[in-house]
Structures are given as structure tokens and as C-alpha cells.
Write a structure and sequence with these properties.
Length: about 220
């Protein structure tokens, strides 16, 4: 419609987005991380800003420029991301694209871990990080539309369906990462909602972003005012 054509489909809305990996320190020089580049989340933030939204982008450590018109909050760890996300509420929609590290070490060492000469590796005790999406799913200020991403290498729809329910999200964008998606420029996604599964063609990440933001604008418009 004309509102979308004019790039104002999200005017007056606040959209909260997470992107990138998190880094969980082991000691001052080492960390646990993953291969997320942040490209898909940054493309979604850019598309939301182009659609006229106020956009808060909570970004893990990535090498990407801030899209025009986006408020960016840089964080390093999952716990910092959780704090920044809660501080940014309320939001009309939250799109959790970050590849949050599932585990961190129970306590990061204050000094660089050293080999002790025994040939045995230093023991690392891992503990689970907070689940940011699930926390928003049961939050007093839950966004009206809550969208998660799920990177899967197998049983894509099945795993994504389970996540939708477990996390209290409205949609899960399931991402087939069995190929070279992480760090690449294209994405192959399936949108899982209570209504079923919608599969999109293999598309550039910018096109996935534009299409997802159009769907978000449409959903928010039909839910209120
Ligand atoms: N997520 C999150 N906080 C976490 C882990 C995941 O907010 N600590 C969000 C991601 O940003 C994504 C969704 O949850 O939107 C699904 O992430 P995923 O890693 O696929 O799900 P997990 O519950 O961590 O399950 P898995 O064991 O498959 O990694
Ligand atoms: Ca995970």
C-alpha cells in the first residue's frame, strides 16, 4: 500500500533487535564464541529504520557499520545483552537474531590460564546463559510481536516448532545453516507461526530483511490501532 511505498509502514513503532554472536570470556585473552557475522540482524535493523521505525539494535562483537537511523548498543556477553534488551523495553516488536552463546564459564579467570606441564587441559566448567528470547516471552512488558531465529542443521521445522512453544514467541524464522549461511550473504528461511510454516526462496540477507519487516509492519497494523 501507499504507506509501505512511502517507507513509513513502521512509523511511530519501536523495534528492538539483537544481532551478532556473544563472546564469553575464559580468561583475559580467550573467549567462547560462534560464527555469526551479524549481517542478517543488521540488515533487519536497516530495513526497520527505512520503514520509519525507531530501532534499537543490541549488537554483540561484529565488524559492521551502524545502519542509518539506528540506535546501536554494543555488548560483549549474553548477560550484557540480556540487560541491554530489558533496558530498551517497551518495544512494539522484538526480533532476536543474535546467536547468543548457550554457555559461559562459571567464572572467567583473572589471569591468563597457563599449561601446568602435566599435558592435561585446564578444566572449564560451563554454565547456561540466560535465554533472552524466552525471558521476553514471559516478560511483564512482552512486545506485542516477538520473533526468534533458529539456526538448525537438521530437522528444521520440527526443532523450530518446539522453540516457538518453549520460548513463548509468535514467530520463529528457521534458518538452514547446513550450508555456508553463517558469514555468507544469502539466507534460506522458513517462517514458523501458530498458523503453520511459510517457506521463502533462497534470498540475499537484505531481501530476507525487507520481506520480514514488511510482514512485521503488516502484523502490527492488524493487531492494533
Ligand atoms: N536465544 C536467546 N538467548 C539465548 C539463546 C537463544 O535469546 N541464551 C534466542 C536466539 O536469539 C534465537 C532463538 O533464541 O532467536 C533461538 O536460538 P537457538 O540457539 O536456535 O535456540 P536454543 O534455545 O539455544 O537451542 P539450541 O540448543 O538449538 O541452540
Ligand atoms: Ca543456542
Amino acid at each position: 500500500d501507499m504507506r509501505k511505498a512511502n517507507g513509513s509502514g513502521l512509523k511511530g513503532r519501536h523495534i528492538l533487535i539483537t544481532a551478532g554472536p556473544t563472546h564469553e570470556p575464559i580468561d583475559p585473552v580467550r573467549y567462547i564464541a560462534n560464527r555469526s557475522s551479524g549481517k542478517q540482524g543488521f540488515a533487519i535493523a536497516a530495513a526497520a529504520a527505512r520503514a520509519g521505525a525507531r530501532v534499537t539494535l543490541v549488537a554483540g562483537p561484529v565488524h559492521l557499520p551502524t545502519p542509518p537511523g539506528v540506535d546501536r548498543v554494543d555488548v560483549e556477553t549474553a548477560r550484557q545483552m540480556m540487560t541491554a534488551v530489558e533496558a530498551a523495553l517497551p518495544a512494539d516488536a522484538a526480533i532476536m537474531v543474535a546467536a547468543v552463546a548457550d554457555w559461559r564459564t562459571d567464572a572467567a579467570a583473572g589471569q591468563k590460564l597457563k599449561k601446568d606441564g602435566s599435558g592435561k587441559p585446564a578444566p572449564l566448567t560451563l554454565v547456561e546463559n540466560p535465554d533472552i528470547l524466552a525471558t521476553l516471552g514471559r516478560h511483564a512488558q512482552r512486545p506485542a510481536l516477538l520473533v526468534g531465529f533458529a539456526a538448525e542443521t537438521e530437522k528444521l521445522a520440527e526443532h523450530a516448532q518446539a522453540k516457538l512453544a518453549r520460548k513463548g514467541a509468535d514467530w520463529i524464522v528457521a534458518n538452514d545453516v547446513s550450508g555456508d549461511v553463517m558469514g555468507g550473504d544469502d539466507n534460506s528461511v522458513h517462517i514458523i507461526t501458530a498458523q503453520g510454516v511459510e517457506s521463502w526462496d533462497h534470498l540475499p540477507k537484505d531481501a530476507v530483511a525487507a520481506r520480514l519487516i514488511e510482514k512485521v509492519a503488516h502484523a502490527l497494523a492488524s493487531r492494533s490501532d
